[in-house]
Design goal:
CATH class of the largest domain: Alpha Beta
Pathway: Amino-acid biosynthesis; L-tyrosine biosynthesis; (4-hydroxyphenyl)pyruvate from prephenate (NAD(+) route): step 1/1
GO molecular function, one term: NAD+ binding
Strand content: 15-25%
Largest sheet: 6 strands, parallel
CATH topology of the largest domain: Rossmann fold
Distance between the termini: 39 Å
Number of helices: 14
Protein name: Prephenate dehydrogenase
Strand order of the largest sheet: 3-2-1-4-5-6
Family: Belongs to the prephenate/arogenate dehydrogenase family.
Catalytic activity: prephenate + NAD(+) = 3-(4-hydroxyphenyl)pyruvate + CO2 + NADH
Shape: globular
CATH superfamily of the largest domain: NAD(P)-binding Rossmann-like Domain
Order of helices and strands: EHEHEHEHEHEEEHEHHHHHHEHEEHE
Number of strands: 13
Length: 365
């Protein structure tokens, strides 16, 4: 247990972390700090904090861990503001989506005021924002990146790791600059692309006729474009160089596609699409990156209400935890296939046995 944990900024991430810490009993007390009292009142109402304050000094007093869940452009200034009020040895971490600029700004402040800083980025979230949408299970099986440097205190790093894993996250460690390059590719570029797709439709004279035709593919691809614009403005600007580099690469790939279409290159276009198909197939199945590979099964089920609940019930009653789930294919009225991921081969094998006994077509993947 960490004693008192102060969370500055009770939006979706900060609120969810507060709820998760209280749910699992990792903190003796969770204190919420913010500027909007109505939002703070709501945070207490939904269970994100034990008590709240608009005064940073009283909010961080006596805290063993301080989590700054503020927009990336304000993390440095917020930590500088609270630094004089922190007890020596306090562990401070953040949840910002970019890390290098924050680490460069905060480490000198930490050294000057004798507290410890550990950069953090829980890769969990939603297009919905605010503490009203906070979820105590938001971090379950999510990547939680920690970005230690040579200046990072090992004990402080371990404490933040324990906190992240305690709320269900799967921790990986990356250098700040490497983190920023990676998230530019897998998070920031996709957001730019989603927004660009929506804006492309938006400038069409026929958009009112086109939008009702938007099917699942368009909605899935552009879902993240519904995220908070001010939040994403700060994220993109704080990681500008890496995002620009990825946009340059993306522009080259789009030009390659345009050239193939312009030339009517049937074989080349098929090969281009096939390469994407093969890479995409690898993403949910085996490419777990820095994390342990999940042990997976695929089940074939009918298209009927409650079928996923039935699967979860069979496995849950046996104490088997589903770490990941994905609907692979579905045809209305006929059925589809669902991928389930487990942490161990023992859970995988037991799941196969139980589901087959229940008459559900199941195979290892």
């Amino acid at each position: 247990m960490f004693g008192r944990v102060a969370i500055i900024g009770l939006g979706l991430i900060g609120g969810s972390l507060g709820m998760a810490l209280r749910r699992v009993g990792l903190a003796a007390e969770v204190v919420g700090v913010g500027r909007n009292y109505e939002n703070l009142r709501l945070a207490v109402e939904v269970g994100a904090a034990d008590w709240v304050t608009t005064d940073p000094k009283s909010g961080v007093a006596g805290a063993a861990v301080v989590v700054v869940a503020a927009p990336v452009s304000t993390v440095g200034p917020v930590i500088t503001e609270i630094a004089p009020f922190l007890s020596p040895g306090t562990v401070v971490t953040d949840v910002g989506s970019t890390k290098a600029a924050i680490v460069r700004a905060v480490e000198p402040v930490a050294a000057a005021h004798s507290f410890f800083f550990v950069g953090g980025h829980p890769m969990a979230g939603s297009e919905k924002t605010g503490v009203r949408n906070a979820d105590p299970y938001l971090f379950e099986n999510a990547y939680y990146v920690l970005t230690p440097t040579p200046a990072t205190d090992p004990d402080a790093l371990e404490k933040v790791r324990q906190m992240a894993e305690g709320v269900g996250a799967r921790v990986i460690k990356l250098a700040p600059e490497i983190h920023d390059f990676y998230v530019a590719a897998v998070s920031h570029l996709p957001h730019c692309v989603a927004a660009a797709l929506v804006n492309t439709i938006g400038v069409l004279a026929e958009r009112e006729a086109v939008l009702p035709l938007a099917a699942g593919g368009f909605r899935d691809t552009t879902r993240v474009a519904a995220g908070d614009a001010a939040l994403w403005r700060d994220i993109l600007l704080s990681n500008r160089e890496a995002v620009l580099a990825m946009l340059g690469r993306y522009r080259e790939v789009l030009q390659e596609l345009a050239d193939l279409l312009s030339a009517g290159d049937t074989a080349g276009l098929e090969e281009w699409l096939k390469k994407a198909h093969l890479l995409r197939q690898a993403v949910p199945a085996k490419s777990k990156g820095y994390l342990p590979e999940l042990c997976e099964i695929v089940v074939t089920v009918p298209d009927e209400p409650g079928v996923i609940a039935r699967l979860a019930g069979i496995l849950g009653d046996a104490g088997i935890n589903i770490c990941d789930i994905e609907i692979l294919r579905v045809r209305e009225g006929e059925g589809g296939t669902i991928r389930l991921g487990f942490a161990t081969t023992a859970d995988q094998e037991e799941a196969v046995r139980l589901l087959r006994e229940a008459g559900i077509e199941t195979r290892k993947r």
